[in-house]
Amino acid sequence: MMVARNQLPSRTSKGGKVSEQLTMNVHLVAFVDILGFRKKLERIETQEDLKKIHADILGLHDTFSKTPQDDFEKHEREISRRKVIALSDALVIAADLKSPISNIMGIFDNLCYELDTIGLNQAYRAINGTFLRGGVSLGQFYFHDDVLISKAMKDAYTVESSQTVYPVIALDEKTFDFFSNNSGNNCYAEEIKPKNTLFRKFTGKEGRVLHHIDYIRIGLEAAFSEFTRSDRDRWKNVDATVKDSVRAEISKSHAVQFLMWHKGAVEKALVESQDDSCVHDKYLWLKDYHNEIALETFPQNHECKI
To answer: pLDDT tens string for the chain (306 positions)?
Structure first.
């Protein structure tokens, strides 16, 4: 039996009331998901298959701190006003340009930090065998009580789904222009300007030239900077005349280890995708990206090359 119009719930019934004042701020918005997730869903046959996909999603959430785990993460989330929203295997990460931390660091430096963090998280997921693809855009964003309204998210999703082929997180044109033409770059020496260190150019669908977050280089730089407690103990116990060389040796060992981990993950993905030429081609592209950075960083160390 058809329901009469006067029996339908009112648009202003309880639970549907709209706030008097809705505000949208400009955010840097990233839409990130797991490469090949749809095919993994289609292949679920056993409890083990389900557990692996479940672990991939939880790993993504943990890496991007969907739910802050300690006081530091909670405070950092408050002052950055960063939102991390889960949508199945995808995450929407939104950083408010008007956050308290932007007032301290400046908008440009804070957004560069956000992109660097996304790249570092992507590198961490990659060396653990989960490759990500995504898009980034600047624009209006609203999220409250599970209601999400954002053209920037739509634009980021368009980059991810329609323009980016490979396991990278790419920026739309207007967002890349914001970073590459920003006067904030002038506060840095040429070799460390964010426009030169955060991004890498590549060719996406239909020959479109895009720029992605250079996650391998970002992960490599973090590895070079790593200095563990055992590293510090070793460094303290050597003669002062060799401290610099030991520190350099430690930095190199961490960087090589990062590349070896990434190499192993890509090689495994290449083997597992041999029966699917479309997916396999994406990992062949990633192999070339890896080798470019590995040979540029350690030209004499071919062990790092795939």
So the answer is: 444 444 444 444 455 565 567 788 899 999 999 988 877 787 888 898 888 888 888 888 888 877 777 788 788 888 888 999 988 889 999 999 989 999 999 999 999 999 999 999 999 999 999 999 999 999 999 998 888 999 999 999 999 998 888 999 999 999 999 999 999 999 999 999 999 999 999 998 878 899 999 999 999 999 999 988 998 989 989 888 888 999 999 999 999 999 999 999 999 999 999 988 989 999 999 999 999 999 999 998 889 999
- For the entire predicted model, the pTM comes to 0.88
Cβ-based neighbours of 282, under 8 Å, separated by 6 or more: 35, 165, 166, 167, 273
163 C-beta neighbours (distance < 10 Å), count: 16
Regarding the domain delimited by 25-214, which CATH topology (the fold level of the hierarchy) does it fall under?
Answer: Alpha-Beta Plaits (3.30.70)
Domain map of the chain by residue range? Answer: 25-214, 226-304
List of long-range contacts for 177-186, beta carbons under 8 Å, 24+ apart: 178/138, 179/108, 179/111, 179/112, 179/115, 180/211, 182/108, 184/106, 184/108, 184/109, 184/112
Distance separating alpha carbons of residues 298 and 8, to the nearest angstrom: 68
Could you tell me which of 113, 86, 110, 95 has the C-alpha nearest to residue 30? Answer: 95
